[in-house]
Amino acid sequence: MSKEATDNFAGKWALVTGASSGLGLEFADLLAAQKVNLVLAARRRESMDKLASDLRSKYGVDVLVEAINLAAPDAASRLKSSLDARSVTIDILVNNAGFGLHGDFLDTPIEQTTNMIQLNITTITELTYLFGRDMAKRRSGHILLIASLLAFQAVPNYAAYAATKAYVLAFGEALHDELRPHGVVVTSLCPGHTATGFDAAAGATASSLLRLLTMKPRPVAASGIRALLQGRAMAVAGPLNKMAAFSNRLTPRSMQRATMKRIMDA
Fold first, then answer.
1. What cellular component GO annotations does this protein have (predicted)?
2. Prediction pTM value
3. What pLDDT score does 6 carry?
4. Which DSSP state fits 11?
5. What sections of the chain are H helices per DSSP?
6. Residue 50 has pLDDT above 60, yes or no
7. What is the DSSP string of 235-259?
8. Range 7-13 average pLDDT
């Protein structure tokens, strides 16, 4: 990553959602290292307060904490209003908040599924609209959407989750072209299995094969920031995941589903 590229971010404000752990924590640290001021948004204030203190001390940047349940129907508008009231202009939006649900669709309480859809799709869409609209008016901005390797095919036992990430990927790639003439870069990052708290939250245990393919969160987050700086429409994190995504172009969808079921449940 060139110094010229990182200088493009220095001194700007970034909003990182889901910033209390996992990829969100890594995104925050990587951006702070580039002298980006941060707004951290997630439910757990205590962990964000500690992260904010660490980042201020380590990098000398300004860090604000917004403790908010982003799965609430009015979360996006409340967060935007709060930042407007503090005269904080967001130049970089990292739409990282989200969670998955593992198991048969009919065995999962529908309230859990709709809550996931609210966060993974609706809140992300609203945040992208609210902050993207301001960026387009300024003719400058960057938006990173976190999709998934599961966005490339249907995945039994992750049916609704994979579908939400397919939406994020398609949404982000379309906006990449729509907003580019307005000076706004939109990039979709597709991580594979990553060593975060995802499995515990999803109610899943990683299969032996999946554990072999697991990446650490730091290089995954770094690949997303790099792709955003490069102005790319989409990035798949890790060479093995890139191969998996490419293979979907060559195999029937029925084979894709069978393969994913074996990988996820082996």
1. membrane
2. 0.89
3. 47
4. T
5. 3-7, 22-33, 45-59, 75-85, 110-117, 124-138, 159-179, 198-202, 208-212, 217-229, 239-247, 253-265
6. yes
7. EESSHHHHHHHHHTTTS-HHHHHHH
8. 85
Q: Containing H/E element for 16?
A: strand 13-17
Active site residue 165: yes
What pLDDT, on the 0 to 100 scale, is given for residue 209? 63
Catalytic residue among 129, 165, 242, 261: 165
261 tagged catalytic? no
Marked catalytic residue, from 50, 59, 161, 167? 161
Q: What is the pLDDT of residue 197?
A: 73
Q: Which residues pair with 144 in a beta bridge?
A: 94, 187
CATH code of the domain occupying 3-265 = 3.40.50.720
Report how far apart, in Å, the C-alpha atoms of 34 and of each of 28, 62, 135, 145, 226 are. Answer: 10, 12, 20, 19, 12
Inter-residue long-range contacts of 106-114, CB under 8 Å, 24+ positions, other chains counted:
108/160, 113/160
Identify whether the C-beta of residue 235 lies closer than 8 Å to the C-beta of residue 146. Answer: no
**Does the pLDDT value for residue 255 go beyond 70?**
no
pLDDT reading at 114 higher than 80: yes
**Domain boundaries in the chain?**
3-265
Retrieve residue 70's tokens.
């982003």
Nearest to 201 by CA among 116, 261, 127, 265: 116
pLDDT at 27 over 80: yes
Distance (Å, whole) CA 40 – CA 26: 12
